[in-house]
Amino acid sequence: MMDKTVNQKAWFLVLPVFLIVAFSAVLPLMTVVNYSVQDTFGNNQFFWNGVGWFKELLDPSSDLGGRFYASLLRNLAFSAIILAIEVPLGILVALSMPRDGWRVAACLVILALPLLIPWNVVGTIWQIFGRPDIGLLGYTLNHMGIDYNYVSNEFDAWATVIVMDVWHWTSLVALLCYAGLKSIPDAYYQAAQIDGASRWAVFRAIQLPKLNRVLLIGVLLRFMDSFMIYTEPFVVTGGGPGNSTTFVSIELVKIALGQFDLGKAAALSLVYNIIVLIVCWIFYTVMTNAGVDHTKREGAV
Amino acid sequence: MENIAWMAWTPPTAIFFGLLALTLGTMTWLAVAYPEAERIGILRIPTTRGDRLFLSLIAAAVIHLLWIGFIGSDPIATLPIGEEGVEISNLWFGTLISLVSAVAIFRTV
User: Fold this and answer.
1) Which CATH entry fits the domain spanning A46-287: 3.10.20.340, 1.10.1040.10, 1.10.3720.10, 2.30.30.40?
2) With an 8 Å Cβ cutoff, are B39 and A27 in contact?
3) Which of A34, A63, A249, A281 could form an SS bridge with A230, CB 3.0 to 4.6 Å?
């Protein structure tokens, strides 16, 4: 029984996945790398350009570089704002959810609803909802004396896109936090009660530490999703007014499909990809190592 | 060749991916021949050889991008190959730094 036969044949079962990923991800990515060092005028004719596109992309004084850095900053600001709203709000919603009874199911269903709506439908809902002529929100705001028009005013456009994202995704953070809260044993609360801990102390000392892991996952998911956001702002504002809500992926599509500058777009998407990869790696590493004590294995080869 | 014309291959990118595939192949063979063991380095996180390769590749990409962004890719020499010669870009210094950083990552992280 002690001698386990070594059999690695199971690896062959991974082969279909490997082939599908190669076909759907690796080959296209290789093509993007090939595009990024060449220029084309269509007709599948390519001209060598070396690192020229990357040079232009990373140079803020060029057209491409200026647009890249501007959209990157915009995107980071957007991600920071929605995280600053969605994470505390999600925790708050999770804390005020009922603990048992039929209300739990009702709350869960209501919370899950926005998550089930496709991005472009969410965009369309808000696009119409915010219109000053026929949209309920836009009409009401304007009749209350607030000059609200997301098509012509930058601030209004940003507010609309942010509120839309909060509407769409706060539920995700709330559901994650709710799951985290459910996993805290009652004994912790009883101990806190005996000690006469305040509501705030219970939150700081028991609930927040226990939410650590789910919050990390929530922040990772929300950051990546908002950093790669395309459909919703595209449907609502189309990146406007001007360029004020043009995020990186919108800029990328404009360059790739609008101008058909495949080389520039390829260089941009590779840099974009590397940023996403690095952020994911950092989050993943923090997530898998949070609270793990490595001191025992110190010095192991 | 016509079937892959849409991929727009060039000799340099083909060499690049060839070397990448060779590296991955070598690492796979190493993992089979000498099974990996995690260890903790200067980042205070457990890493395997694969993790260190990943970090080296990411670091190489970042180093090259920073080099292009801050220094550029001016030619430093011309090799007498062909009629016009082959220009050597100073970006190869970035490649050199990447290799050094890869060695450092493999030894210390």
Assistant:
1) 1.10.3720.10
2) no
3) A249
